[in-house]
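Lab manual, section 2.4: Encoding a predicted structure.

Procedure: take the sequence of the chain (841 residues), apply the prediction step described in section 2.3, and record the output as structure tokens. A sample record is shown.
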Amino acid sequence: MASTSALKRSNSMTDSMPDALKQSGRYHMKRCFSSYVQKGRRILKLQHLKEEMEMVIEDKTERQQIFEGDLGFILSSTQEAVVIPPNVAFAIRPSPGNWEFVKVSADDLSVEGITSTDYLKFKEMVIDENWAKDENALEVDFGAFDFSMPKFNVSSSIGNGLNFVSKFITSKLSGRVENAQPLVDYLLALEYQGEKLMINETLNTAAKLQMALIIAEVSLSELPKDTPYQRFELRFKEWGFEKGWGDTAGTVKETIRSLSEVLQAPDPVNMEKFFSRLPIIFNVVIFSPHGFFGQSDVLGLPDTGGQVVYILDQVRAMEEELLLRIKSQGLNVKPQILVVTRLIPEALGTRCNQELEPIIGTKHSNIFRVPFRTESGVLNRWVSRFDIYPYLERFAQDVTVKIPDVMEGKPDLIIGNYTDGNLVASLVASKLGITQATIAHALEKTKYENSDIHWKDFDPKYHFSCQFIADTIAMNAADFIITSTYQEIAGSKERPGQYESHAAFSLPGLCRIVSGINVFDPKFNIAAPGADQSVYSPYTEKQKRFTSFYPAIEELLYSKEDNDEHIGFLADKKKPIIFSMARLDTVKNLTGLAEWYGKNKRLRSLVNMVIVGGFFDPLKSKDREEMAEIRKMHTLIEKYTLKGQLRWIAAQTDRNRNGELYRCIADTKGAFVQPALYEAFGLTVIEAMNCGLPTFATNQGGPAEIIVDEVSGFHINPYNGDESSKKIADFFEKCKVDPGYWNKFSEEGLKRINECYTWKIYANKVLNMGCIYGFWRQLHKEQKKAKQRYIHAFYNLQFRDQVKTVPIVSDEAQQPVSKPAPAGKPSGRRSQSRIQRLFGS
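Recorded output:
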């Protein structure tokens, strides 16, 4: 293994490959590569490469030596290989975000380093040789516009963009006092509805501002800290200061001192602190066009799920943080947050046909719905997120006009969600000149293997050509990207991240993305969401318990009758319960968990199991995968005779009752288990830990970052059920001997959540990003403008044409375009004239 360690330190796999092949034995390697090319053109995954090598090298000892040597290390870092006889091209990923491409000749084992473009052409040769050889094939290179932008150097820094940008701004402003002039110009431009904020033209240079800050700080030192700003406002205005510094002498002095430090001896921490105090963001627009976006009766409807919950919780947290900031800035401003979504006339009993709907739990936030329009009029019906592309441009045009009217001005920050929301956010932000963020939630490209290279096979059903181009456009248009985990960006040592898969890919016949997105770009940030504290509170906080649900939950868990909501029963009510709740599909692996439990007699003797997910009748499902999992669950219950020990509950949509269900499981001294084969984030893990439940979660994906193994919970390997079930059984045996052991993990889980995974932390991070990246955008405005032109050309010349291939959904009777559907009762927060103007009456 010493050679492997040396290879890890090597700068280039191209340089290392010849020696690695030589070390493995020329005879074996010639036979192995002859085997690879013998079957002709194809794409091979790592598993296939190893399997074919094992078939060629029959001697187990020799094979083991090769796998443990340099070639074994190179193979373990290989994501895939492309065979175009007589060559085999390898895509090697030594570490997250870093890729190398190497071509090996089967004839003489010669090695040549190739570019990502060359590698993509190799892949295209398997699918469409004419396209691969076409010298005029469209190549898209967003990296050409980022060559002068600073980037991270090491994989471990990926996702820490805000800190990196703060450091870079610090270096730009440090040195001579004149270097701070861009910051002075930025402060001079701050205003709200025509009223100047922070400073006026009296302080139009860094030197003047620096001197005025010294005078102001001396003056403030003579006043009590709680002196209202109004008492010294006139004196400050004479010196060139405007509102926004703070509400009292104490907060004003803190802001002044913070800016003084930025101007005299800038450091990244103080830079971020100063920008967080600035009155920059008052109005926020969040886009989520697809599905049925509402606050009740929508979960479970097509394309409607976790994203809705995420955004509503996000809005409440952001409004609360904005109100706190605005108060401390000494301003009398009401922030506004608009969630802009689609108005659906055929609303299926929901409020999705109402134009304006106040968001519960907020004072100044609303859902604002705008219909999809075609040449025939307003589209009445729901449209799948995969078929939504023909409507987005018109939708973006409509909301660009409507939003400034509703908000009585332009927003200060625009946030997109998923492909459709991110594309619309990009179009609107570009038109209005606004700072833009994107949130992917899920990038479909990584869910379907080879869905880029085989896009023509997927397009009739999913229209991935539109989706992948739209995703790439939005990523590059965004000023910053919000993700929930590191793995979402750059994956793990073994698996590329969702964003990383867009670094270079090809859609043969359409375009070759030679540089899509660079995960080392400082626009990437990790801001993990939390759980709604009012719903998912610790089981120990008795005053917050939803006691009205107790009878229903008692029946749900322990009734011995089978019905449409639950089957199976728990014979011994004194046992702790291990609990899991998810969609019933292959990846979520609930049937895998049931089988682990069924096989482990020791675990069955210690605990009961409750699983929440899916239907009981496969005929009620419209999803073939779910139907198969339902049948498998029934088979497992019979095979392992689980009646009396396993309760299967149908999918639940009442969040409040689910929150209390977690706590009732905690009352039994049970645990939550999340056994997914892969989980991008793991919101149920956050919910369970927030309720005080010790948690076992998959080590594949986001939960591995949420839980510190054997400190705040436990990692389990979903691909090794015996090991995982043993780990769970060991935990409950220790709890039986020492009741304090359960309490320890309950408390440590809560501590971890409160330190890292709350909506308050999230809102603070995102608003700080909005402030800092707004200035970052100004510093690089010429480069931003050039890249925007490139995006505009790509959008118009490629995306718009591809959208024409997506069929337009038609209604039997469409509404005329004139007016939106009538709204529900408006919030009393707005003046009558404004409501009249908003609804066109």
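Check your result against the sample. The radius of gyration is 29 Å.
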